[in-house]
Amino acid sequence: MAFIIYLWSVTNKDILIDEARNAALAQLWAYEALYERGGQPAVIGLVEQNLDNELINWVAITDAKGQFLAGNSRPLGKLVLADDADILEIETPLTAEDAPGWGSKAVLVRRQTINNGVTVTVARDIDELYSAQTLSRSLSWVFIAILGLISGLSLGVALYVVNRINRMSATADSIMQTGNLNERLDIDSNWDDLSKLALVLNKMLDKIEYSVQNIKSVTDNVAHDLRTPLSRLRSRLDDLPDSSLKQQALAETDVLLGMFNGLLRIADIESKRQRMGFAEVSLGEIVRDVVDLYEPYIEEKHMTLTFDIQPATLQGDRNLLFQAFANLIDNAVKYAGENAQIRVTAKETSTSYIVSVDDSGPGVDVSNFRQLDRRFYRAQESRTSKGNGLGLSMVKAVADLHNAHIYYIPDPLLEGSGLGITLMFKKPSVALG
């Protein structure tokens, strides 16, 4: 850009004309200096000597009365010059030799009185200089236009590339944040390198999604195949005589059955079949029913329960939502500890429906938040508590089924520790950021 500005400034200056003007002034100063040393004869002698010099077009020396003394152009000495102009458009030839093909010429004329009224007038033909300068200026403007076009194209390509990279980065970040392997990078064309890269990355995502689905399928099939023999095993254990060993075996079997039932439940939810039974449900009423169910148990644990439940309705599966909210409260009761505070809120905003369960328990390290809804994941702090690590996985599956987002918040009650879990259900035609 700086070079374009410089080139524009140079092309708008009369550099060639200024050079001719300076040369004419230098010629006059030379005559004046010669006059001071050798007088009028020396000046006239030099003029006569240089009449054949191609660099000097016309010169005329006149006395105080305007009489022509020396030179090659009598009309030159009689030209009337304005104080603020030294370039004249002359239509009359300045010498007899100039008459053929003269027409009209742009002539630079400079005049200086040397001494005792003796005046020297010099003139230079600048027609060709004008043509050269006009051509140079035109070429410069063409060059500036080309540079501007190249700069504009470069800027456009740069913005396009940056925009593509930002979109690819945003999609990749979304996949990492949400774990949604159905998303793919946009492919704008088949010729640019970024589209080829996006195509390769999409193929990689296809393979990863296929592998993950296979793993889930194997897990679900194992759970399904083992649930039946486990059910038979429990039935036979139940027929055994009562003993502490029997009760221990039944408890362990129930844990395994609960785990496999949870896996199958999550698989059923993730299959999206449940969405066919969606109906308009009261979100506030569901949350209130869950709170009523857990309130006696919370009081028994000497915990403090507060809630703020506002009415709101949305399209969803009532039973699944009830189970998800129950898992959230059960999670808080299980890990917050006695004398902890639990807060349940349900509200509607202009863009979404929000349900939050917050507690003041020991909480979870922020670095583990992204793993909380992973199957079988249990934070190190909760290893000694009962559970199989499927509760929040089921909540995540229900949230995905309802196009909701799940957020984890550290120390939501500002008690120095604790964990807040928020489900945000977007309203129709409203996209969450």
UniProtKB/TrEMBL annotation:
GO CC terms, sorted: plasma membrane
Keywords: Kinase, Membrane, Phosphoprotein, Transferase, Transmembrane, Transmembrane helix, Two-component regulatory system
Localization per record: Membrane
UniProt EC number: 2.7.13.3
First-listed, main subcellular location of the protein, grouped into a coarse class: membrane
Every HAMP domain range: 159-213
Catalytic activity annotation: ATP + protein L-histidine = ADP + protein N-phospho-L-histidine
Native organism: Salinimonas iocasae
Name under which the protein is recorded: histidine kinase
InterPro entries, per database record: HAMP_dom, HATPase_C_sf, HATPase_dom, His_kinase_dom, HisK_dim/P_dom, HisK_dim/P_sf, Sig_transdc_His_kin-like_C, TCS_sensor_his_kinase
Domain Histidine kinase: 221-427
Enzyme category, top tier: transferase
A GO term for molecular function: phosphorelay sensor kinase activity
Transmembrane residue ranges: 139-162
Pfam families linked: HAMP, HATPase_c
